[in-house]
Amino acid sequence: MKxxxxxxxxxxLTAAAALTAMAxxxxxxxxxxxxxxxxxxxADLGWVRCEGRVAAYPGFDVxxxxxxGGTIESLPIHEKDVVRKGQVLARIDDREQRASMExxxxxxxxxxxxxxxxEREVNRRRQLFRDGALDRRSVEDAENQLHLAxxxxxxxxxxxxxxxxxxxxxxxxxxxxxxxxxxxANAGETLAPGARILRLTxxxxxRVEAEVDEFDVSRLKAGNDVEVSTEGTMGTWHGRIEExxxxxxxxxxxxxxxARPTDxxxxxxKIALDEATPLKLGQKVELRIRPVK
Length: 293
Description:
The structure is a single chain. This protein is an alpha+beta fold. The protein folds into three domains: about 100 residues, Beta Barrel (Elongation Factor Tu (Ef-tu), domain 3); about 60 residues, CATH 2.40.50.100; about 80 residues, Orthogonal Bundle (Helix Hairpins), CATH 1.10.287. The protein contains three helices and 15 strands. Helix 2 packs antiparallel against helix 3. It is elongated.
């Protein structure tokens, strides 16, 4: 009888203890939240995702202007025109500079005649000096006049070179092969020194500049494979990292994913394209970069 009563008391206590232990065990070994993948990483392949823009290589997207002010005499070039290096794009009115150059050229010829006269005079006086008809000072006076004429001719030649350079600068030439992307002026306008006239770009020398989150920088190196795509265009193009700058900066492109922060700093990674693409200069693109293994 006592044994039966003891069992009735012990069994509920044992069951309660077991339930308590199971609850504690579940609390300690319950499901844990998995670490979130990097915001720019690809969940399946581990590739780095980012955005970028198509840009020209340095030196292949240039603004053409004028060092000297003046009125545009002719500007036959229009947007989308293809031009060659050295081709005359525009002409600035150079009548004043040409007149000054011609006047300087006349002084050169004048001093040339003076030099010829002074050379003959020096030779004549030297002969008279040898004959004893003139003293040494008369010869030196003639030689000084010859030197002065030569100096005046040198100054006139320098003026010719100066005005010729000014005339040349008023013929605006293409510094590179390229396409006219923008035109900032028209014939008949008067420009100030340093004013812009045209923008030229060599569309055969373009690449992608990608903004990679600073937290993904350590996963990249030069030569990494890159896939490039864009909304509204079918297909994917391939490239590779060719340049990793040494410093990060503020983000300039708005991320496609609204959940990604906009105040994070980025590295402007340069991507060389392996093939021709229909992408336009300045077009925004999406990239996947295979990281370092």
